[in-house]
Amino acid sequence: MYDPVIPSPGVPGEGEDAVDVVATIREVADIHAVMNQSTFRALLLLAAILSFASTTPAQPATQPATSRPAAAGGRSMKDAIGLAPKHAGFAMDGYFIWCSSVLKVGDTYHMFASRWPAEKGLNGWTTLSECVRATSKDLLGPYKFEEVVLQKREGSWDSERVHNPKIVRAGDKFVLYYISTANETGYAVADSVTGLWTRSDKVAMNFSNPAPLARKDGSIYCFGRKSVNNVRVAQAFAAPAYEGPYKLVNDGSNLLPDGCELEDPTIWWAHDQYNVLVTDFGPGRATGIVKAGAQYFSKDGVRYQLLSNEPVFTKTVQFDDGTSETFARRERPFVYADEDGRIIALFTACMPKDGAARVIVQPVDHYTPDN
Questions:
Q1: Do 210 and 290 lie in a common domain?
Q2: 118 and 26 in one domain?
Q3: 175 shares a domain with 306
Q4: Do residue 184 and residue 255 come from a single domain?
């Protein structure tokens, strides 16, 4: 069992230089009456230039904004990932399957995932996504559909959809995090993995793609992403219990280094650090491949470092029968860790070039980072 400690770092204030420039502009205005018009215009132009310079982040001279960030070094999960069993995972005729997460209860693995009608295509998730549960006695599957767990509710915060479910056990409760509209994450809680589920009556965290960690004391650390001016930045919230209150662990600025973007994080605690695997969003700055798997770590839950520039996964999956397939989309990674924090399975949502998406599972050989 892990028991990560989240620090409460002091965060310097923002915009102090900009405030100084505003004061300068006001001083310019005060002396306007005692100087000629051309001098006043020159000073006003100078103040505007200073204001722009003070509010525009400087780029390091040795690393352009478009370059790949330096990696800390260490063995990523890539070389520990095995061949995917061809007929394992989770698929349902007539449905897209997306966003898996898995929890073992007794001798049974319970997968919570998103689904929507295949006839609606990929964009069907925006209004029709619902959370379902499937089970298997084998971690790799195949998983069998059991029930619809949650659907959208009219007149509630989750009235648009139920999507991106992530299941954790917090103390003696099962907590199912999920999103509705963009940048809105809430949860449902139950005494049993099979329900009954009681939903939060309001949004708990204002971001998407929640990746929760539940400590043995019941407190929560939740990593996710938020779209800010169409840039997908990493954020994290912490709470003393699943009920909240949830608070940003810093000022909301990007937790990833060098302007890297993300979607679809999955998180685990090992090697005395937070570890996350994400899809490399935006320009694919971390790996050089858009939406490949990128792996980061953090000792304090606030400052993350890229482990390796090498992608953990790409759109191509190798199967145990000697075949392979390159998918149109491969997203939503989820890692399953054993009791010692070693990764033993990787789940991803895979959409073929023609047809509905399914969840593919690959064994992982007891991976632990060694950075």
A1: yes
A2: no
A3: yes
A4: yes
Same domain, 228 and 176: yes
Residue 206 lies in a domain: yes
pTM, two decimal places: 0.83
184-197: string of b/e by CB count within 10 Å (b at 16+)? bbbbbbeeebebeb
* Residue 333 · residue 279 · CB < 8 Å: yes
Angle value at C-alpha 244, between 238 and 247, nearest 5 degrees: 40
Per-residue model confidence (pLDDT) at position 20: 30
pLDDT (tens digit per residue) in 99-149: 999 999 999 999 999 999 999 999 999 999 999 999 999 999 999 999 999
Name the phi and psi angles at 38, rounded to 5: -65, -40
Are 35 and 158 part of one and the same domain? no
Parent domain of 131: 78-367
Query: Exposed, middle or buried: residue 44 (CB in 10 Å: 0-12, 13-18, 19+)?
Result: middle
Q: Which residue from 77, 110, 68, 274 is spatially nearest to 195, judged by alpha carbons? A: 110
